[in-house]
Fold this sequence. Notes:
The complex is a heterodimer of chains A (301) and B (217).
Chain A: E1 3-4, H1 10-13, E2 24-25, H2 31-42, E3 50-55, H3 58-74, E4 77-81, H4 92-100, E5 105-110, H5 120-129, E6 133-138, E7 154-156, E8 162-164, E9 170-172, H6 174-209, E10 214-218, E11 222-227, E12 230-237, H7 243-256, E13 261-266, H8 273-283, E14 288-292, E15 299-300
Parallel strand pairs in A: 1-2, 3-4, 3-5, 5-6, 6-7, 12-13, 13-14
Antiparallel strand pairs in A: 8-9, 10-11, 11-12
Helix pairs in contact in A: 4-5
Chain B: E1 5-6, E2 16-22, H1 35-51, E3 55-59, H2 64-72, E4 83-88, H3 100-104, E5 108-113, H4 127-141, E6 145-150, H5 153-165, E7 171-173, H6 191-198, H7 202-216
Parallel strand pairs in B: 2-3, 2-6, 3-4, 4-5, 6-7
Helix pairs in contact in B: 1-2, 1-7, 4-5
Amino acid sequence: MPVVEDLTRFQADVPASLALVNGFAWNERGPATRLARLLLAELGVEERQRRIFISHKRDDGLGAAEQIHDELTHKGFVPFIDRFSVREGSDVQAAIADALEDHAFLLLLETPAAHTSEWVFDEVDYALSHTMGILIVQWPGDPPPVPGSNDLPRLSLAAREVMLDAHNYDVLTAPALDRVVARVEAAHAQGLVRRRRMLIRSIEEAAAASGATACLPLRDWRLLVEHGGQSTILGITPRLPTAEDLQLLDAACSATGIDPSAVLVHSARALRDLRATHLAWVAGARHLELTPENAIGGRWT
Amino acid sequence: MTLKITPATPSDVERSLFLSASIPDSSRWGGEFDALEITDAVVSLARVFLTAGWRLVTAAHPTIAPLLLYVAAEFSGGGSRRIAVYQSELFEDVLPTATRRFEADGVGTVVWTAAAAGDRPHPDEWNASLAIMRRQMLAETEPSAAVFVGGMHGISDEYRLFAKLRPDRPRYAVGRPGGEARTLVRASGSALDEQLREGVVYPAIWRAVLDDLEATS
Lengths: 301, 217
């Protein structure tokens, strides 16, 4: 990755062989941190798309939610603001899960009215029950905690860190915004490692318990497992499995040169028929299987 | 031929596991703990044991009990017997209102126990009510084993009570999430005890505990 001080002089400063490669500008705010994150993403240690679900109560949290959304986007995250509208009688838990399953991190804005939201409790419990990363930003004045979140770690804002914008919504001051985003950066990375570590090591131990003769760690959180005389590459995804996940897994198999089969372990609550059919079509005749995390301790054949 | 991983078939034998877990209140307990490690351990336990067909029994805790009910809602079959949450009438508002939905949906059961006369819902003024709740919970559900995660001094109280009422039943405590449970981890030197003390892969820990229970049943 070419690193230059001034992108306008890129062609002049880098060797011709790197002229077509995207360069990195060592300027603006926090260049070292931004470069480190890019390198970690390229190496497969950090996610290329850092998806964050921003949970808030519209009445008093919308301004800050949109402010944080914009800042996270600028920092290379892919944030999402929940705007639920579920018909009466619909399955609340399923609606929450459908939205959250594609994200690995929940950012909760604990404003004074947040505890009254009919969604926030489910969002917090979904995040915890799927070992998603979670960060709760607590408003000044000791607001009532969101149900089910007692004793969880929080970033507490001081009164001087919150102000009103032109529309009379609470927003954060610039230093407070920097503080929140820095904590999100750290919590997201820690949460992701925690989630993937648990999953990959659970698979390793289950493989050993089931009689695997070898279990070799590969890059991008994969394992090469020798079991029952056959070789299998196991990949993991902490979110809903996608066609890209299967393609990358298939490419990893091809790269080994030994034609192993492959299993993608996912943590989705349940795969909707439409997605399951789509992924089966993507897998086609290749030796690619999808397995839910809950099955890992079962029978390996 | 592609490797296939098939979920274990739930046991036909109905057994209950008592889970004593909570996130310490740092204003009342000065020891080390990690709140998210505690919830990770609890969630993993719920998934492993519910997958195996066990029933979970626990006292109400404002974060832990809703989490168990939420996980249990993802499993089909078993109905309201999957989770039993015991709560003293002294703490009417401990459980979030939203968890009542799970009981209405048949996911779990909330069992209310009588409050002791003179008790108040404040630290050190609730001991008699908690004692009533704990004895009723263990007597009614007859758990086959007990697991201890995180917690403060109440965890030790429940450990001793379980040992007294169910002396021939195994007790397992995990160390890594911290809390009072760390002091309860056995020091037998066995491989399982070492895993309970230092292990961080909670699904694997609970699978090992499940294997231990199957082997000794």
